[in-house]
Structures are given as structure tokens and as C-alpha cells.
Sequence to fold (328 residues):
Amino acid sequence: MPTPRKLREEPSRPAVTAVGLRKSYGGRTVLDGLDLAIPAGTVFALLGPNGAGKTTTVEILTTLVAADGGQAQIAGHDLRTDPDGVRSAIGATGQFAAVDDLLTAEENLRLMADLLHLPRPQGRSRTRELLERFDIAEAAGRRASTFSGGMRRRLDLAMTLVGAPEVIFLDEPTTGLDPRSRRTMWKTVRGLVAGGTTVFLTTQYLEEADQLADRIAVLDGGRIVAEGTPDELKTRIPGNHVRLRFADPAAYGRACAAFPGASRDEENLALRIAGDAGLDALRALIDRLDAAGVPTADFSVHTPDLDDVFFALTGSAASRHHAEETPR
Fold:
């Protein structure tokens, strides 16, 4: 089950806004009028199939690629007129750790502090703080080449935070990590947001978005086709149902008569009843079973998950295959 999200007060200024962002490569439109409004101190997840434009969106918002049209602001800095201000306010971590394998963890962090022109005492203090915060202090003197995948990703994220950015872009940050390391990264991200940092996340792991995101946008064909909280998106997709299983054929038969429209599973003596799976609906269903004198062996409630949302909103398998052959 997703971790309950703490309600946050609405900030006075969004951390990220975009209006009508457009980008094409070789005559192919990758982004076709992208609009965003991301509150500060939240996690925003951008989902979509390969080729949908997720990485292009991150590249534009982090000043790596110029948009063909549209406007955007990051932490109050205009992307077009104040790119240096944008770069001073953000941090970015890509799909693969950008650490220098020949340097130790401490040296990697100090190098980043020097590149950001932090005063030497401040850079050393920040290095020590981040080594402790990301649980790599005991490995501070080891070369990064000796680190596990999870440790490398933590070091990579620590390097992103040396400059204390207001907004962090995480482009598929847990790619290649084992489940334990992935959950450790989730805990780290939650800690950042609790401290007021805004996180812009792209991911191929739908469970990751469900666990972390306050809001999710689904990108397909260069356009946002749906946006909302994870729960809001799930309610848009039909598929709520209750599965009832019965102990004997006689009870199953009476239940079939009581629910003539239900989908039947003769082999397992089970019925699938589509519709609202809320508490009131469940009470009404149980009352109906009691009135028919039908005991149940067990029942379970099923609701759509983000996988259902993703596949319902992002087009055909053929279009996804075509997208994989084109630039992001």
C-alpha cells in the first residue's frame, strides 16, 4: 500500500511553471504545448512511455536544451531570460550516476563544492553534512568504483545537493537498483521534500510514482493526457469490482441468482461484481447476500492501479513501439 501522504499548505508561488512548451526533432514533434504548475515542497511525477517526451521535458527545464516555443519559470527565474538563475536554483540527477570512479566519496563531494565556488570552509562543512545524511560517512575514503549501485546513487544525489537547490530533477533515479536500494532512495526523497525541496521525478516504475508523488501527469504524444493525485487518476479508470468466493456449489448457485449480472468463475465458485467498491456499496452488497441467505467464504475488493491508468491513457502497443525508435 502506498505510504499516506502528509497534507501540505499551499505555497504562495509554484516552484515550476510552464506554458505551451514545444520541441521538435527532425520534423517530429516531441512536446506539443506542455503546461505545468508544480507547488513548492512537493513531488511531481511525469509518467509516459519511451519517446513520450519525459527526458526532453527535463532537459528543457534544466537549461540543457532550448525549447522551440513556450515559457517556463523555475523557482521564480525565467528559463529564457535568466538561465543562470535557473541553474543556481536547481539540481539534477540522471538515469546513471555521474560520480567519478577514480575519486573517493569525499573527493567527489569536495570537487562539486569547488565547481560551485563555495568557500572552502563551507564546502568542507557541506561535504561532511552530506556524507552523514546519506549514510556514506564510513565509506568517505573509499573510491566510488568500489561502491554498490545503491551507494553510488546516494552519492550521486548527495552531489546534486551540495549547492542546496530549491528544485531537484530526478530522471529515472532508481534505474538498475534492486528493490531494497530503491526503497532506500524513496526514503531519501521523502526526507528532501519534508525539508521543503521540490522534486520533479520521471520514472518507469509506476509503484515508485504511487509511493512518492503528490501529483502525477501522464505524458503521451507530447501532450499531458491526464493529471492529478495518484488516487484521482485511479478513479478515472473503470474496473472497480468485488470478488466473492463461496464455500459450496449451493451457496454459489444462490449467489448467481441474486446477482444475475455478475461475472462467473465456475471452477473457483466465485463471482466478480463490477461497480463502486466504497464502504456504502460494500454494506449494500453484504445486506443483499444476507437477504438471499448466502454465506461467503471470503471476498476481496479490487481497484485499478497506476498500471491500469498508464495502459489506458498512453495509446496502443504499436505507438509505444514506434516511440522507442525516436528521440526523447
